[in-house]
């Protein structure tokens, strides 16, 4: 029988596996701010994410772990539609942000507005070649804030919230490029905070930093959790276990296990998770 035989195409197609009810994939999330619904993504013909569903808890830290190339950053970038900037990307499924679909139909959220509410911090700190002050004020300026007093307030608040104010208050007009790597990364966090987002996505924010600078960022993330929802990609399992409340383990574009961090690291429900966290692969 050929693959196109009409008899065969009338046969009931097997349903893709559903995540519903699987305890390894459905931690109890009382107040999700984001809800990934059966999300798949292709770069051209190459599928990078397979049918992923998960809820992100509000004002908590959610970590994505897994070996390199398993789709962690791709999934993270879906939350503020950064993948739309990549040519040839196709997405199926949707993500609800506070109940509204961010993809979906023409009523999908405006991308600029979405990226203001869901900010992003990248692996390599990327301050603009401008002063410390202008780096933080930038987002507000492009959103039309002109008053010097309002900008001064935003810059101070954001730098304080990013635990950087005391180190830079006397050199706000100096170039951001003169800061250390760790300070630059906290500056990028301050820049993200300046436009008052609700969610901050962090893509391997410490991978270029030494242990002392890493500890500062981790401390800062725990502080930010009081007011913001954080989603972090990390290849560092110790980091995930130190800072996150929930951990999602991805492998080859699939969500293998998702749960309370402590539970996932101490008593994983899937063999693959156990093999990965005990260092048997990856
Ligand atoms: P991770 O963050 O877990 O290292 P990624 O999300 O970066 O994984 O990558 C997942 C898969 O998607 C990999 O096979 C990678 O090569 C591919 N990929 C990532 N970004 C792109 C891109 N811009 N264009 C084409 N393929 C990509």
Write up what this structure looks like:
The strands form 2 sheets. Strands 6-7-8-3-9-10 form a 6-stranded mixed sheet, with helices on both faces. It has a 4-stranded antiparallel sheet with strand order 2-1-4-5, with helices on one face. β9 and β10 form a beta hairpin. By secondary structure, it is an alpha/beta fold. The N terminus is likely disordered. It has a domain of 183 residues: P-loop containing nucleotide triphosphate hydrolases (Rossmann fold), CATH 3.40.50.300. The chain is globular, with a radius of gyration of 20 Å. α4 crosses α5. 34% of the residues lie in helices and 24% in strands. Adenosine-5'-diphosphate binds next to α2.
List the helices and strands and how they pair.
Blueprint: H1 6-10, E1 32-43, E2 46-57, E3 61-65, H2 72-78, E4 89-97, E5 100-101, H3 111-117, E6 118-121, H4 132-142, H5 148-161, H6 165-168, H7 181-194, E7 199-203, H8 211-224, E8 229-233, H9 237-243, E9 246-251, E10 254-260, H10 261-266, H11 271-277
Parallel strand pairs: 3-8, 3-9, 6-7, 7-8
Antiparallel strand pairs: 1-2, 1-4, 4-5, 9-10
The structure holds adenosine-5'-diphosphate.
**How many runs of DSSP E, i.e. beta strands?**
10
If you consult CATH, what is the topology of the domain at 27-128 and 197-277?
A: Rossmann fold
Query: Could you tell me how far the N terminus lies from the C terminus, measured between alpha carbons in angstroms?
Result: 41 Å
Indicate the radius of gyration in whole angstroms. Answer: 20 Å
Q: What is the H/E string?
A: HEEEHEEHEHHHHEHEHEEHH
Helix content: 25-40%
Cofactors, ions and other ligands in the entry: adenosine-5'-diphosphate
């Amino acid at each position: 029988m050929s693959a196109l035989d009409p008899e065969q195409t009338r046969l009931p197609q097997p349903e893709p596996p559903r995540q519903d009810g699987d305890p390894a994939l459905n931690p109890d999330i009382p107040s999700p701010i984001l809800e990934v619904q059966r999300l798949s993504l292709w770069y051209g013909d190459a599928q990078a994410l397979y049918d992923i569903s998960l809820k992100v808890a509000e004002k908590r830290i959610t970590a994505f772990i897994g070996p390199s190339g398993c789709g962690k950053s791709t999934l993270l970038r879906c939350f503020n539609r950064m993948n739309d900037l990549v040519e040839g990307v196709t997405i199926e499924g949707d993500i609800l942000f506070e109940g509204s679909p961010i993809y979906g139909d023409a009523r999908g959220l405006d991308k600029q507005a979405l990226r203001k509410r869901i900010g992003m911090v990248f692996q390599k700190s990327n301050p603009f070649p401008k002063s410390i002050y202008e780096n933080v004020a930038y987002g507000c300026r492009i959103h039309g804030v002109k008053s010097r007093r309002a900008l001064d307030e935003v810059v101070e608040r954001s730098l304080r919230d990013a635990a950087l104010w005391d180190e830079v208050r006397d050199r706000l007009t100096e170039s951001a490029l003169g800061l250390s790597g760790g300070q630059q990364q906290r500056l990028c966090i301050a820049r993200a905070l300046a436009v008052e987002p609700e969610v901050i996505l962090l893509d391997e924010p410490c991978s270029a930093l030494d242990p002392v600078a890493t500890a500062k960022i981790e401390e800062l993330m725990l502080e930010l959790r009081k007011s913001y929802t954080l989603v972090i990609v990390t290849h560092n399992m110790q980091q995930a276990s130190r800072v996150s409340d929930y951990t999602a383990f991805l492998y080859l574009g699939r969500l293998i296990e998702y749960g309370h961090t402590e539970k996932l690291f101490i008593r994983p429900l899937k063999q693959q998770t156990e093999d990965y966290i005990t260092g048997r692969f990856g």
